Amino acid sequence: MVSYYHFQRMNKALPDPGSWDEYFETFLAGNVVWGSWFDHVKGWWKKKDSHPILYLFYEDMMKDPKREIRKIMEFLGKNLKEEILDKIVYNTSFDVMKKNPMTNYINEIKMNHNLSPFLRKGVVGDWKNQFTEAQNNQFNEYYEKNMADTSLDTHFRGLS
Prior knowledge:
This protein is mainly alpha-helical. About 50% of the residues lie in helices and about 0% in strands. The chain contains nine helices and no strands. Helix 5 (about 65-75) crosses helix 6 (about 80-90). It starts with a helix and ends in a 13-residue tail after the last helix. The mean pLDDT is about 90. Its EC number is 2.8.2.-. It holds the Pfam family Sulfotransfer_1. Belongs to the sulfotransferase 1 family. This is Sulfotransferase.
């Protein structure tokens, strides 16, 4: 939600998301540009039972990028040399991608990097700096209600 908010703020092609508090309510209601995040995630999560889909989580990629890239290799039926794998890990690291104009859209005129860079912080759990405790409780309650019918286990819930 926080990433969507900052992306919508900086992308001139999208409507202004309003204040964080306004966006929070709009997001939960599913009235954002891309529709309900919950419906989107649940729809694709269900597809895993009938389609070959690999799910990765940002938290896992940040914790152990090499392990997650190996998962991609296995999923694609590829076997790369360790030196190639190390290059992929390096070139897909947040810091390297943030400096790369092609991955951070630095030269894209529709992106206002003065408001927010496309690749902002790359920090796991930074949402805790955006959510109030009340918003965290509201989100957790909404999440539990709307995602109860999935086996999806997330890493991001709870202000702890």
